[in-house]
Amino acid sequence: MARPRTPLSSYGAISVQAVAYDDGAGGRRRLHVIPDADRRKHGLWRARTRYRFEDGKLRQIERFAESPAKAENALKEALKSVQASTAADVKRETRLRDLGERFLAAKAGRAPRTVETYGRAVRKIITPRIGDLAVSEATPDRLQRFLDTITAEVGVGTAKTVRSVLSGMLGLATRADAVRTNPVRELAPLEQKAKGATPIPLADLAGILAKLRADDRAKAIDLVDLVEFVAGTGVRISEACALAWEDVDLEAGTATIRANAVRATGRGVIRQTHTKTDAGTRRIRLPGSVLGILGDRRVRGGPNSHGLVFPTVLGNLRDPRNTARDWALARTRLGIADYTFHSFRKTVATVLDQAGLTPRDIAEYLGHADPSLTMGTYMSKTVGGSRAADAIDGLLRP
Which residues sit opposite 31 in a β-bridge? Predict the structure, then answer.
């Protein structure tokens, strides 16, 4: 009768032997087992067994100590660590707080902002409110009431994030056979009336920029050129903060958008070598007025060890959040309505639409996904058309 296979995440019999080292060929130390009659002369013992990992393979694990009991205990402790790191330990009794930490560990390799968002959802909302529920107790009814409360107290946007994280958490439980189906799939959809940023009226844009150019505080913190660049291209503020001179071709009149600046917990502001979405990586033609601004900055120079187009006054990477706050303070000083950086982005889209560009042209220039829902793919990353740059340039010039 064939010997039964060792189950996954378990080990076979433990053997303990007295061992010693001697000099082998080439002067290398060689481990060998000591005969029973000579065991008391030596103080090294080896405990070993074979462990079957999640990939189905048996691998040998061993530990050494000065006595048989200590060697065996050391091996058993090592096996506990192996089992904890490899076994699928999500069960019906697992608490949501523990499942949330397991979910965060699985997502540790994502973008810093994504990891930070997931962490807030788990540790600030899910764990304090329903963290003591067992996986089996996370029924659709309980989760629906929880999300309804979050929607009423915090808002739909946060509730959507929490729902997404809960779906990922309970997806882990489903794959571990702790529950039959993911209960989040049974919840009612969260609906939110789109609000978004307010586009700037086209007739007001030139006047707003003129006020900013005359503001001493905005000039002191080097905010003017950055705002004009965003207003003239519609790029995201995180993309503008991360723009490097190596991605600007003044002779060709283009800029390649391929990075963004984000704040990561524990790491400060970092420059990610990718954009918010795959479609965000693009090369755009710049309006003439924007080219003039960049040309002046290139000649003017300044402290900048990172090769950035719009660094801080000390030459460091700009924080998009702090920059948005600087712009908000400038608006208050100058009596400008609450137009955010995203308002410029919407305004550029309006300009391009009125100039007769197709939805595909506009999506390509702004780095949006393909507007055609039936295509289901991202836009191409070729150079934006000259008509886009000309249309914006005509609006920016007083």
Answer: 21
